[in-house]
Amino acid sequence: MNAVVQSIGRLFSSGQFPATCEPDNAPQRYGKPTPDFVLCRDEPGNAMAVYGEAVWDFNPYRLSATKINKVKFDTVFDEDGPEQQALIEEVKYVLYCLIYFARGGRLGKLSVSTLGRYWLVLRMAMKFCLEQKQKPLVGTLSLQQLFTVPVYLAAFIREKTFDQKALSAILQGLVRVGEERLGYAVVNPKNFDLKKRDSNQHPVIPTRIYLSIINLTGDLLDQIHKGVGRFDNFIACFADEHYGVAYSNQRTRGLGGKAHWRPNMAQALKDHGLASVFSGEFACSHKINLKRVLLNMQYVARTVIHLYTGMRDQEVLRMSYNCLSDQVVRQVVIDDQGVERDKPQAVNILSTTTKFTGYKKEGAWFAPGEVVKAVEVAQAICRGLARLYQIDLDDRCPLFPSPAIVSFTRSSAEVDLANFGNKSLSGSALRALPIQGADLQELAQSDPLRDFYNDPDFAVGQPWSLTSHQLRRSLAFYGSSSGFVSLPALRTQYKHMTIEMSRYYANHYENLRTVFGYYDENKKDFVLPSNHFAFEYQMAIPMSVANQLIADLLLSEEPLFGGTGSYMEKQKERVKAGEIQIEDVRADTERRVKSGAISYRPTLLGGCTKAGRCDSFLLGDYTECLSCEGAIIKPEKLKAAIEGASNELDSYAEDSGEYQVVKSEIERLVAFKARLIDSMDV
């Protein structure tokens, strides 16, 4: 199993432990590390987490857009003595073992956000151990005693409040680390009443509430969009700390006579032509309310993006200011009279997806017109905030910076992301849609195995607790229910590894025969209007995949190998010779993508056009691509894989199982290269 984990670590390299955190000195992996052992480096190579130091910063390895807290060993205790230092040394080694040897997560690695959760529990455990010093019959405990004596662990669970699911994961991880490496055998976590992880799917938003969200976001977005051309200059004025302040407060600030007073909020909005925009849901009578109102505007824009693209929460937060790109998916259609008849376009939102790749990989999402408007609103607000933060509008500038800076002035302020979990958004209209009895009935139909009726979070009269992932699942659910969005299209838009996963998102859709259209009395059924965005999905997703495949493969100068790679290479030669037109190849590729016959995703060795499940891909056995009919092998990627595996081989003892597995993989890669690529060069 360890060999499989190592293979996965190579397939999905960087972004998580342990692949990114390759130890500076490999032999130390089999013993306690020295104080200068580096666990984390930033992009330029600076050490951010060194084993012997008091603070570990793993932010360079985080996958989320929001920053994580540093691990600070020197702030756990009020005093510094031998007992405290012994606990610190213990917890450092426990964290080290969890990082490199626990093999957690889907990919056999530990994310830094999960490590942060573990640290909070271990920090509490350290304090508990020292507190036992007040009990003469017990004395200061060690972590080893806490994790090996059931009575001590039971007392910790009973007396302290912490994330019990994280404690269970820690104990399971230490079991996987093993007694030989850890130095002791931990207790079985199953013997304790620790809370288990909630395995329920995110609920589908009931039809009535879902339609209300669509209509409400549309109306609010239209209102905000009227101010797109004026937001930046208005927000930039708040670099002056007195701007927008009530006249009564300016009088006491010693600004001089009225000639030196700045406009109050009402006058400022009037001066910039924004009075109608900042009304109703976005009313702002005082400067103190401005950051909340701007955050609410950003929240509407963010909700629209989730609503129509199905992007994940962190994928939206990682979007940069320059995130829109226009892509022509068909050439202009002109009739005999020279009149332009058709010019469809697919607009993509560019962001990053890390759910399964394990690193910040660029991805593209098809976006209907509403999403373009939402991005334009977010960009307009961002332009104004960027002037306050004094940052450039480039790919490093986030699309959703925090608007909190309008309430204070400081030069070179650190750019934080907007906090959409802020309690100030609790009054938003999107979070005030009440649940009705019919909604509860629909919920029960959408997931028959779940008891919504006895769940207080879904009680009739309660406001619907809206989350971004509900929007993601509801789009899949209702899209599948309508029959207008196929599973291959859904998989492409959602960046799923398998069609089965997309099917899971649309789970039980056949139980609820309602779609977000209008009810036709004559047909006795729900009907989608002709301009519905589901039709755009139908057309744009296959086009997008086909264009990506052709651009990456057919138009590339690099020779291709493998099952599909060899076929594409022959097609390239036929196109160059004029035997076939690239438009014909595009149409055939698009038709096969739409039917689900082929797919396309980048791989470690090149690409894959296989549709459906791939067990070798899931297990990290990337050398199986060499003999797969759907594989595309690129020489440069093959050479990089050989080099990476050869470097990894040096970190293993020759008599270890890992060494033998990696060696056999290198031999297989080298043999493929010698037989096909090197022979062609000769």
TrEMBL record:
Protein name according to UniProt: Integrase
Source species: Pseudomonas zhanjiangensis
Record lineage: Bacteria, Pseudomonadati, Pseudomonadota, Gammaproteobacteria, Pseudomonadales
